[in-house]
Amino acid sequence: MSLITDTHNRRADTDAPLIPILAERWSPRGYDATAVVDEAALTTVLEAARWSPSASNVQPARFIVARRGSKSFATIHGGLMGFNQAWADSASVLIANVAELPVDAETKLVTESPWTRYDVGQAVAHLSIQAQHEGLHTHQLGGFDGVALSEAFGLAANQVIVTITTLGVLGDASTLSPALLEREIAPRTRKPLTELLLVND
Ligand SMILES: Cc1cc2nc3c(=O)[nH]c(=O)nc-3n(C[C@H](O)[C@H](O)[C@H](O)COP(=O)(O)O)c2cc1C
């Protein structure tokens, strides 16, 4: 039996109708390693992050944007955990999503606000949906060495890398290793909605 390796339609099988962009978004590992993202599209994707809501409109999200071939791209790629390193260099852009934590005005100590990282996540969600609209794909990563990357980019004490986003053009999944291909074409699943609704009065 031959595997179906065309990953261009991995639309979610939803129980209620979603707008197409949401249903069609998924996180690939098989990007086109030669594709270059149009600069106007990249600016639009980042602009979507800029216009995401944030608590008190503090706008704590910062981004390190690294195009393939740049020194910054090599630095981010070098800071990924092995499993992610194996495929993420095929993305056109690697983006480090940074939370700028509040600094106490008197003590000058870095503090934690419950909303800062939440706001960064929301900015990345907006970015990823805009990317999907531009015909691009994103895959967010938690598997990276945050300490090493913070040092490499000389981040301030209140700037924390929360996640990395890979951004690029969908490629030919059949070029992936067997282990990665298996994940790439695995059925997309979610918990039932009823399990998520603690109260649905
Ligand atoms: C915060 C976060 C961290 C993630 N970390 C990784 C990672 O390190 N490596 C990876 O391959 N995928 C990672 N993912 C991707 C998730 O596994 C993926 O979004 C999830 O399985 C749902 O699949 P979908 O995005 O295709 O719907 C991460 C996603 C998020 C939101």
TrEMBL record:
GO molecular function per UniProt: oxidoreductase activity
Ranges of residues in domain Nitroreductase: 23-68, 83-168
Keywords from the UniProt entry: Oxidoreductase
Pfam families per UniProt: Nitroreductase (PF00881)
Kinase as UniProt keyword: no
Domain of life: Bacteria
CDD domains: TdsD-like
Family statement drawn from the similarity comment of this UniProt entry: Belongs to the nitroreductase family.
Protein name: Nitroreductase
UniProt source species: Cryobacterium psychrophilum
